[in-house]
Write a structure and sequence with these properties.
By secondary structure, this protein is of the alpha/beta class. Helix content is 50%, strand content 10%. The longest helix has 21 residues, at 19-39.
Length: 475
């Protein structure tokens, strides 16, 4: 059964009318961009670092199949159990089976975008498993019953006053905290601390998986990631198959660029390197570690040499922070696990252009995302490619050709015919100069433009007429 198309235009229109939302995002984005600029004040260092990080990701993608095999071998040798999932349904089923085997009914989870792809929380809750987000931003949006609006700062769309109101609605002890951010954070910490102790399973994402050593790298700021991966007896890590890197020495360039690009920090508070479950004689750590490696369309993306660059992404969110579209409408307008520029090229390839064909068009092509990307992803070029795929059937992208329009095709044929015939061009431009401005903006094709823009005004004389008046020959 075909899934319904997501209406980004309607959702973004609603977001643009929310002045509080726009104010929250403007303040947040201005702060993030300023902090990032301070971290990369040395332009020469910035260009050298992003070239290095891009080469790390390109080398890993060039060797992806063999690196994944090497990663599995070394993870298994280290005592970590590896599970492969082609689809999100398979990944969810694997996770539930691990939970059942561990007799666990409560899981605490650190930030993981892959589990957002999977809609894991809803799936587990349908099967009687309680899942609690332990990242403060994720915890807030979980209380609110909404999706994260940013891949790094999930609750960035809310201000302190709105969060305080939410806590008072959802948590009985929140009345005394007022709108004090520290008090609200402390309340959340107390609630989460007990859950960490009671949970049978801890879950996390993976920022990089090292094939050479079988090591999982996880970076975070709050300590919740370390708690999730060490306190519960079972740890499940989720990663997209593109997160593998070849060598341990490939990790520093990534963890140097990622926090500086994402939040303007020189380094995150916690850098976790996980290579095995608890060994005999050790006093902490999980008894079992499982890694779920998800495909979910990534193999198809990888198969196309041009689209493959999508998989370079290190999930820093810098492209969102600098995107003129995202910063106006926020993340919820996309109704997707990955919003903003990276989402506009990744999600349509994962979920298909029938459902997500509007996303590549939600872009001004200003190139800000390309200039800011720490691993040099040609986002705008890929966006253009997906726009072509949306109207021309091919084997490269799921549901390619789904947005093809006979009317649009006929218009472009007419445009081509006019511009390849001097006589037709002269007749058309003369007619537009004479009567074009009298055409109502409600005409079937013109109204698509005038619904969000001013109606174009035609000059009273064509360029050819003006040239002839100045004595320029018609060449």
């Amino acid at each position: 059964m075909a899934e319904h198309a997501v209406n980004f235009a309607a959702a973004s229109k609603a977001a643009l009318q929310d002045s509080q939302l726009r104010g929250n995002f403007r303040r947040a984005m201005d702060g993030l961009m300023s902090k990032r600029a301070v971290q990369f004040a040395d332009a020469k260092e910035w260009h050298a670092m992003r070239a290095l990080a891009a080469s790390v990701r390109l080398r890993a993608l060039a060797k992806l199949p063999e690196l994944l095999e090497q990663l599995e071998t070394n993870l298994t040798r280290n005592g970590i159990q590896v599970h492969w999932a082609s689809t999100t349904a398979e990944a969810n089923a694997i996770t539930l089976a691990i939970m059942r085997k561990a007799n666990a009914t409560l899981a605490v989870k650190g930030k993981s975008m892959v589990t957002e792809e999977m809609h894991l929380n809803a799936f587990l809750e349908e099967h009687g498993v309680e899942v609690l987000e332990s990242d403060l931003g994720e915890y807030i949006v979980q209380l609110d019953g909404t999706m994260p609006s940013h891949i790094i700062m999930p609750a960035i769309h809310l201000n302190t006053k709105q969060i305080a109101h939410l806590f008072k609605q959802k948590i009985k002890d929140a009345a005394s905290t007022g709108e004090d951010a520290a008090a609200l954070t402390d309340l959340a910490r107390r609630i989460l601390r007990q859950k960490f102790m009671n949970a049978g399973v801890g879950m996390s994402g993976v920022n990089a998986a090292v094939a050479e050593t079988g090591t999982l790298c996880l970076i975070e700021n709050e300590g919740n990631g370390r708690m999730c991966t060490t306190v519960p007896p079972v740890h499940i890590a989720f990663m997209g198959l593109e997160k593998v890197v070849e060598k341990l020495e490939d990790v520093p360039p990534i963890i140097s660029l990622l926090p500086r690009s994402a939040t303007g920090q020189p380094i995150t508070t916690y850098v976790n390197m996980i290579s095995s479950p608890r060994k005999e004689g050790e006093k902490d750590g999980p008894r079992e570690i499982h890694v779920v490696i998800l495909d979910n369309g990534r193999s198809s993306v990888y198969a196309d040499p041009e689209l493959r660059d999508t998989l370079r992404c290190i999930r820093c969110g810098a492209c969102m922070n600098h995107c003129p579209v995202y910063t106006k409408v926020g993340g919820h307008a996309y109704e997707a696990p990955y919003p903003g520029p990276i989402g506009k090229i990744l999600v349509p390839q994962m979920e298909g252009l029938a459902k997500r064909g509007e996303m590549p068009h939600a872009c001004t092509m200003c190139n800000a995302c390309v200039e800011i990307c720490p691993v040099q992803i040609p986002i705008v070029e890929i966006m253009g490619r997906l726009r072509v795929e949306a109207v021309h059937p091919s084997a490269s992208v799921k549901d390619s050709g789904a947005r093809a329009s006979k009317t649009e095709a006929l218009v472009w044929k007419g445009w081509a015919a006019m511009n390849t015939s001097p006589l037709a061009y002269k007749i058309a431009t003369t007619a537009m100069s004479a009567v074009g401005n009298a055409a109502p903006g409600s005409l079937p094709l013109l109204k698509e433009w005038t619904s969000v823009r001013s109606k174009p005004r035609f000059a009273p004389r064509t360029l050819h007429d003006l040239a002839r008046k100045k004595g320029i020959p018609n060449v």
